Amino acid sequence: MKRTNRLWWLGGIVIAAIALLTLIAAPSTSYISNGSTYNRAPDGYGAWYAYMQKQGVKIERWQKPFEEIKANSVTLLRVNSQITPSELDFEEEKWIKQGNTLVILGVKGAITKAEFSTLQSSSVGDIKIETSKRSPNKKSSLELGDIFGAVVWSEKVGKGQAIFATTPYLAANAYQDYPSNFQYLAQLVTKNSQIFVDEYSHGYRDKTDIESQGDRNWLEYLAKTPLSPLLLQVGVLLLVLIWAQNRRFGAPASLETPVIDNNLAYIQALAGVLEKAESSEFIVNVVGKEEQLQLQKALGLGKIPLEHQALVDNWVQQTKNSSTQLQQLLRHSSQPSRLSDKELLDWLDKWQKIRDRTSS
User: Fold this and answer.
1) Tell me: the pLDDT tens digits for 3-45?
2) Which residue ranges make up each domain of the chain?
3) What are the CA-CA distances from residue 150 to residues 86, 112, 188, 232, 359 (Å)?
4) DSSP secondary structure of 231-300
């Protein structure tokens, strides 16, 4: 029963750790959905998409990779969820040259001294713009802008064109009170017969695309997964497993039962009692007698306790050392007094020195 509970606890910890790491490492969902037509928040484009449908415009959400757009005379609207450079890649440029139009809102622009909130004149009325970012617009056709640079501009590419805007919120839900904004974006994208809104970049996938992705093997998954979050999750998982099992990798090592030394246990227990009772006199008396007996044995004087003076005379005769310290130790042992811990250690150290001099 205990093992089952432990496994449940272990599983819960692992799941919680992975979930926490996923939330930390994964990009913010709200950030990715900026500009999505499925998003009803102020930074979404749901209201503009509904507006286009009411106008009877042929518009469709595109939820597949860019490379799968096969039709011609198409306009693709891409509302970036982050600021990106306006340069086109090879596949995009090739596609536009065939007569298609690519509209990208929210590209890179320089921060200028322009006021953040302005009204820009257009053929459909004043357009509400809330950004101070502008493009130099040196080789492009100005669609919308001021003395500080272009807010919306277009570039001719082969038979088609690319249209860029420094703001990703040109016709966002927040501008529903500015109908000119909705009309202006509608005018930009209705240059071709078919209009696609890129939802693939916002994380939305077509059913057939999801099924094809499901066929990928785990090596492809690892190749496309950011390495840092993956290693972090694996590391935390291993740490949790090691902690839960309370052992390192490999089979558990059996612990040897320690051999109990009864004499040592008795001495340690007695020492603890004497220390609490502050009975250093008893220790001095007992240890002093034992030290005297060991000294007699070392001098070859037998086991019968001798008079202190006789012991001192023999020690001096054999070791050629001064008798002063030994006389003090023997006197203290026969007339013990209470000693502090430091004094007791000093007393034992002096006996150690007597033994060293005797054996040398």
Assistant:
1) 556 656 666 666 766 666 665 555 444 567 788 999 999 999 9
2) 2-27+219-243, 35-202, 264-359
3) 13, 11, 15, 44, 101
4) HHHHHHHHHHHHHHHTS-SSSPPPPPPPPP-HHHHHHHHHHHHHHHHT-HHHHHHHHHHHHHHHHHHHHT
